[in-house]
């Protein structure tokens, strides 16, 4: 019987759970430190480099912010659990270092920048930083003299807020243990009417967990529900509407809420959700994106925190539990998940001037994503460590007929070649229940061609094709690709199987015939 060839060059589906025959060929069983690249291929994740000086205190970085105060001189700031630091350059052009602005703070919860000042909440105090000094925000009494008891009680609600969101020219504040949203006057984040309170009560006494401005309205998150506040006339309350959205879950983690293109993503109790506004509706609609594909995303019962950002076409979310940090990425363009990623961090930031993703980490280290880097950074030592890539395909039905056995004669690996670095991934083939391991050298070195004007032409080909001769009898074949070496990239473009089909066959053991009685 003649040989047949099957080609697989679409791995854009990302992670999936299920039986091999119920999964499309584009899905993966594992994608550790693996990203989609070169269209539909697979690549090792890009690495990071040390971006800014390390905090001498070695404290964990909780937020990275850039502020342009009234003098116009841009300041880079970072928060730890109890302090605020500013990056300064010493006289004489010496290396920049972090300078303490103030300490004795509570961990930052939420912030915004307005009027050349940084404003932030920590659940116990409302503070500002104008580029020189940190001050507590004060309440202006409605009438001359000392504030009344009602005004002091009202201001206590603002000071104990943990969430703030700007919508239009107003700021909205909420506490984590209550079900009310307080909004400011127009153009002033510290001026309020005592009646500027919106109640968001539910029968289960659920409390607010986050705020997000979206689609001409304000999303109000609780653990079990999401509300949408629309309208602009807050004085006469003529067009204000508060509507409960049709979602199965809210969120327990405010920092998982992230605006992504024309939608909002957040981590719910049973997976990752996307809110978007359909053309035919004024209200956002919800969709559960993860279902069973990323079980860890739904396992919120053991999570202590989660934080996210959107960068380079991917929604990145880091989950923190007793086992440490792990990151997953959702790619809206292909509706796919990849993960886990093992570069740990305590915060993301895209708020600095450079168009890059910055990570605040434990140990006082601050990292920056670098596409050309092939290594991660150890947040305990600051040293480069290899990226442990591991990608495993589904078990491909070689003959494509489920019950027909095949004899696989060869496996073809098509991969990209890199000019500066060699690539030596290890391959593990599983044919039904038999495994074989290989190491593939994807570096073809210099490729010499014809001479031109008396000089030799040479260079690198864009892709190489490697053949693994085999002689395996199987129905299904899966391939695992892994690499954990420093300075080694990996980019898989496609796979091919050369095989001969056999007759359909199965195990007949345990199959017996019995007579059927008809009760006519």
The span between the termini is 50 Å
β-strand amount: over 45%
List low-pLDDT spans: 446-454
Strand tally: 45
**Mean pLDDT, all residues:** 87
What is the radius of gyration?
A: 29 Å
Number of helices: 2
What spatial form do the alpha-carbon principal axes imply? globular
Helix percentage: under 10%
* Structure classification: mainly beta
The main β sheet shows up as: 7 strands, mixed
Describe the structure.
This protein is an all-beta fold. The protein is 3% helix and 48% strand. It contains 2 helices and 45 strands. The strands form 11 sheets. Strands 2, 3, 36, 37, 39, 40 and 44 form a 7-stranded mixed β-sheet that branches. Strand 31 and strand 32 form a beta hairpin. The longest helix has 11 residues, at 149-159. It is globular. Mean pLDDT is 87; it is low at 446-454.
Brief summary:
With 520 residues, the chain is mainly β. The protein is built from 2 helices and 45 strands.
Task: Output the keywords.
single chain; 520 residues; mainly beta; seven-stranded mixed β-sheet; six-stranded antiparallel β-sheet; 45 strands; 3% helix; 48% strand; globular
